[in-house]
Amino acid sequence: MSALVTLENVTYQYENAKRYALQDVNVAITANEWVSVIGRNGSGKSTFGRLLNGIVVPTHGTVKVSEFSTHNENEIWDIRKIVGMVFQNPDHQFVATTVRDDLAFGLENLGLAREVMEGRITKYASLIGITPLLEAEPHRLSGGQKQRVAIAGVMAMEPQVIVFDESTSMLDPIGRKEVIDTMQMLHQRGVTIISITHDMDEAVLGSRILLFNEGKIVVDGHPEEVFSQKDVVTELGVSLPFSVELQKLLEKHGISLSETCLTQEELIGELWTLYSAK
To answer: All domains of the chain, ordered by start, with CATH?
Structure first.
């Protein structure tokens, strides 16, 4: 399958910075992947996300989305139709006094006819579950509701890829679950998900993990493959998913399991198999 997003020899340095934020990054992402991007603070995760839709442009190298390059200013809006972004703080994405008007804002920038805009607002408000909120003021919503409104605003533009940049980090458990449920639903509908996160229990939802350290991708693989390298991951300043951490503690007490368990359900299943065989 051909890549939808490609980074070739990408290096990026912020103005007046002494070191590179990203160094010689090469990666290809195909349609309908769920890629979790992890790493300690300052490792280059958010810079990577911002490169994908042209918020920043490589100092060296090339970022291509479909056939478009972020170096070409004339193609940036084509790229942003394909790659949408949901940020950590949804308040930064609101520009209107009602949810309906906020959803309409991005569509107006696309130059869509009013009836098309109204159809998309109705469709994606229903899909994301925010129809009752359309006449509400965004700043009066809960954290989870705000993020779902931000997601609906991005979805209304019908991108093929959505980058979630720490989008659940400011939410309580209920709001976090609402957003993760929405991400899973969008992925099932064929949207490519790129999730930049510090939450390792969220990271294991992906089919692929990119682990960044000092601006470089140092591990690229399936979650089970990545988190089976427990010492490598922790040495790079990244925590382990709860189930993997618990499994590591069990190993210290002589209880060794055959598989790396990414979820509590998997861990319970392995323990059940181990002890039922005795």
So the answer is: 3-240 (3.40.50.300), 241-278 (no CATH)
